[in-house]
Design brief:
Chain lengths: ~400, ~1100
Amino acid sequence: MTERPKLLRKGFSGKDALTPGKLVLADGRAFPGMMAGAVPAGNDTVTGEVVFNTSMYGYQEILSDPSYAGQMMSFTYPHIGNVGCNTCDMESHSLHPTSVVVRSLSIVPSNYRSEMSFPEFLLKYNRVVLSEVDTRALTTHIRDSGAQMGAIGRVEIEDCELQKAAISAGSMEGQDLVSGVTCSKPYSWGELVWDAKRNQSRSLSQTQLMDRPHVVAVDCGVKFNILRLLVDSGFRVTVVPATCTADEILAFRPDGIFLSNGPGDPAAVKYLIETVQLLLGQVPIFGICLGHQILALACGGNTFKLKFGHRGANHPVKNLDTGRVEITTQNHGFAVRSESLPNDVRVTHKNLNDDTVAGLEFPEKKAFCVQFHPEASSGPHDSRHYFDKFFGLVVGSERLGIGT
Amino acid sequence: MPKRKELKKILLIGSGPIVIGQACEFDYSGTQAIKALKEEGIEVVLVNSNPATIMTDPEFADRTYIEPISPSFLASVIEKERPDAVLPTMGGQTALNCALALAEEGILEKFGCELIGAKPDSIRMAEDRELFRKAMEDIGLPSAESVLVSDLKHVDQAIEKLGFPIILRPSRTLGGTGGGIAYDPIDLKRKVSLGLKLSPVHEVLLERSLLGWKEIELEVMRDLNDNVVIVCGIENFDPMGVHTGDSITVAPIQTLTDKEYQTLRDAAIAIMRKIGVDTGGSNVQFAINPENGEFVVIEMNPRVSRSSALASKATGFPIAKIAAKLAIGYSLDELQNDITKETPACFEPALDYVVVKIPRFAFEKFPLAEPILGTQMRSVGEAMAFGRTFSEAMQKALASLEDDSFGFDKEDKFSDLGDQELLDQVAIATPKRVWQVGESLRRGISLDLVAERSGIDRWFLHQILEIVNAESVVRERQAQSLGTEEWVYLKQLGFSDVRLAKLFGTKEEKIRELRQSRGVRPTFRLVDTCAAEFQAFTPYLYSSYDRLLSDAPASNREKIIILGSGPNRIGQGIEFDYCCVHASLALRELGFESVMVNCNPETVSTDFDISDRLYFEPLTLESVLEIVEREKPIGVIVQFGGQTPLRLAQGLAANGVPIIGTSVDSIDRAEDRELFGGLVRSLKLQQPPFCTVRSVGEAASKAKELGFPLMIRPSFVLGGRSMRIVFSESELTQYLQESVDVSHERPVLIDRFLQNAVEVDLDAVSDGKRVVIAGVLEHIERAGVHSGDSSCCLPPQSLNDDLVAEMKRQAEILAKELKVRGLMNIQFAITPDREIYILEVNPRASRTVPFVSKATGVPWAKVAAKVMAGKTLDELKVEEVVPRGFFSVKACVFPFSKFQGIDTILGPEMKSTGEVMGIDRSFSGAFFRSQVAAGIDLPKQGKVFLSVRDDDKADVVEVAQNLLGAGYSLVATSGTAEVLKEHGLAVETVHKVREGSPHVVDKLGGGEIQLVVNTPEGHGPMLDSKSIRLVSNELGIPTYTTMPAALAAALALKEGMIAVSESPTVMALQDYQRLREAEPELRSVG
């Protein structure tokens, strides 16, 4: 690896800033690369659960998605950074994966929306990227051997040291990562979705929102686009910490409750499961991703860790009631075990790739949830209509269980 | 939604001959569709006039009609076959237009035949510019501001509204024919009047220019359940203003944020729903303003297309196959992803590589046509390459083009240009631009300036900058001094060994040796639709220099590698792909593992289920050697892919690669003129006297010995490139000085040209012991017209049996002498005094193999492949078949309408892009069918203009008599008219151009003349006769430029048309075959 910078330094302005580094997995497999962004100093290492995402677009949205907290994000698409980064495409206030792994880092962006280059962006949020990695080899390895922890460090560090760091970082299973990403206090939200014509996301004022049905969004690591779509579909939105009790939530006099996406093992978020048990049946509830798993757990079902998870923007999900298929964005390492669900819960959607549960309805309790991300961002907009469905459920124009 | 059980028989319309804008991608899609439908137990009826296609092989469809794709012929097929439905979305614009005509004429209704895949209203809404614009307005999507004109009167209003430049798009023409950009009112009016003429509905859309915007395409699939998926997004490297078929294109999209991409995705889906494409694939094109993201919808094609073939190959998602299944009622989630086997087809492929497609042009064939790219497609083929990065894919694509390029080279071509001149050229889209961009960045011209002038996105330019910057470092180094990581870095940037050899000033072998000694070898990766998320089962592979993984290791079965033919070009097209596909199928039948190597995304051979393994790689020595090293085949086949693999044969053999079939030495013996001359002499055969010269002076003195006229041919050429017939010494020296590079290293061959000789193509196959004649084809045009441009007839229609027997004898001794194992093609010339001369022998597959296979009912390429793999002809029970009782005529299709201003005469340089076949009980009937199939609009009545050179005056009488007999009236220039009058024929005399108005060109322009027979004298600036041909080309008036073709046409008009035209009889290939089997007199065994 020491020879390459020599050629690079004279060869291409920009990449001369790269520092040789490597990723070593808990099982000892090593992947050499070149680091940029917030490069760890000396013998420092950065650890995380290595996951791969197959989306070809929207790296900024993915990295700012709080559900990726604690993970090391490897993109299967080789060129990352092509369009730079901007403030508008943030899905939260910071970046959540501990580190990023790519095949080819674009140093100079090209897009009218770009405000800073990708390496600058990583530096701003204090994240390292390991580039020039054979990411297909990494993906294949994760696919075959299952998700595991990894550590990134400078090339001088022995592989076995990095392996040790990876092993000692532990596992995602049983970890409550929600408490690390949830908001500290309630706030209200008024921003609408991105308007292509104006290239901006407009906000509605409190007066404009006043007469709307009120939804309380429980923030387990919520993506901004969920909040934007809730406003778009007609709600007034208050975001609350995931640690709020049922009483605290009900004190906002919500017309509906939304359970957000979030990182880690849902079964470890016991406090929220208990809260939801108390809320179920009182007000209509809509859950996405972790929210979906929490609802399943709250009604007595259980969840399990997938071998390597679903992360991408091309997952086909079939609506079992209509027979129609939606192409969805997904990001989850855990799934609901369908045979664990009580009889009053209907499986409404399944993932066509592996037949896992992708959506549930609780007709008696006016609650429904989906495992995938109808807010997309990044990803296809096929499923945005679930926000309208939720609005309909809240205002009474929509009833659940029609398909049964 | 399950399959519709009531659809038991489906008619599929092919796309006809290969023309610019509609090439073998429709053979790929049609073949896939036929297989997909047959899998479902549906009886498939196919109509396609193109014999070189795989889809027209009798084993694919149940009923195969090689008939013209015109409403009347299709009506006859429908009447005879009574299909339940017609599937028109697999055969390009030709099939769609024809289906629409069938619907409008009430033929579908009459026979209770449903249109599936696309409904007439959908086709109309998508194809009619004005309806489409309104539809977009209805769903709130912007389209480019435009004005539709159907006459010249409204052009001024359009100018006021749109401002210059203005884009012209004639409605419903192929590949943008007649389209262009106009910069001023005079230019605009001229182009509008031409466009109105070319548009079948006489409409031209004038559009606001979006020059410099980004062009993006999405490939969309939709099923009856309204499930929609985007198979692939494609970004054009060239900005708007260049036809997407002529642009370098990249998948996936590189320079859009997710928000922008999803906006286009939403729009594409809304368009599918609005246009009402219920089932199947469509292509939607957008333009995006890079300054502010504003976008407009350019167009959509409600059918599979060149782009969908590209998207299928780029992603592994077989669009045509899935589209066919959707058309019969399946929904996307009911169909399986063939590559992963476990996941459904209802998904959007995820790529973990970059794909670059690059067009191949043939402007050198049409020297007068300006090589400037615009909205009308003019490329004749394309190559595609995969890489882990854009740089790797781009440089591999350049090497795949076989255009003397191995990356961002050609710098010496621009050395005489100053920076400013270079930048001026970069601003104009031409075939050379991509290398000029590389050279500009190499010189240190600022990237911003190059971006501004070219309109190419800065991201792409940055990748190219990294490549040329790496070059500059390489130039300062010795190859020996590079370390492993440096080698890897250079190879990951896509540098080929040849390019590195040039940069280091050494030989390719040396570079290969050094690189391999450092252990730097490619790895191979799967095109798996899912970025490795799931296991893939289909070994569809590309190489890269990422180092930690190689997918799908070689098996330990016995395998044979077939080298394909690379990008299509004039002289090397679908016929060779046909042979490669057959070779693969044959080897699989024998139990070998077949391994295909090719880089042409349009072809059937690059369909991942044709071969056991597919390597989508450049056909260069470097990549083939690496594949051979990995696969360790028992043999490599080089004789099916035309010149492309043959050029590699020596290098492969030198590296110890086992080449099976005819030996490389034998191929060399046949290709090398001196060696071949000795061979012919030793066998006591004749060839025209010839000599090889290495200077202009030598040529002049040798020419005197040989005697004029002479045929001049530079060595190592394809498709008769730069070949010329000269009639005098001055013509000879002028041509050699001006047009040909003659030197010691590049000798030029001079042959005595045999005037008025009948040319014959003979195809044969040999196993080294026995020789079986596959077919003897008599050319219609005389020797001097390139064999690829001649019409021909099988069996010979005018040669007597003795001559044919003698040619067969000669073929046999030649095959034995050359120890041919596999196919062999011989071109003979028979002089008026019945002497047989051998023009050339090609111990390999020739262009005529598919035609001969269709005419004789024997799959000759398969036979040859089996022979090469060790079978004997006796074991295969192969016998010669001479069809009796019906004639098969091959006619050629020319791209002249795309190159306004060029002469349409035929000569030794090949210019045709495709071929058609006509089969009939009479020669004139077969010829007539072939002309209709070739799109020659033979008039049913009217005036024929005749003007022939002195040598043809005797023959013109017979032509004229036949035309008069068929009810046409005649017009001729004075010389020709005189001859006709002497024979008592009624003819009107018209002025030559130089005799003043009203002259013949005025009459042509005034629409008074419906057919032209014009033979030119010699080869010089024959102003008069050339202007006649130019005008008739521009106006699309059928023109015959040789007497034999004119005579065949006259006969066809007199006899063939009457026999065939009104309600044409049609017969399936399978019936011809049955006829051959049932009536022994129709078949004679030689």
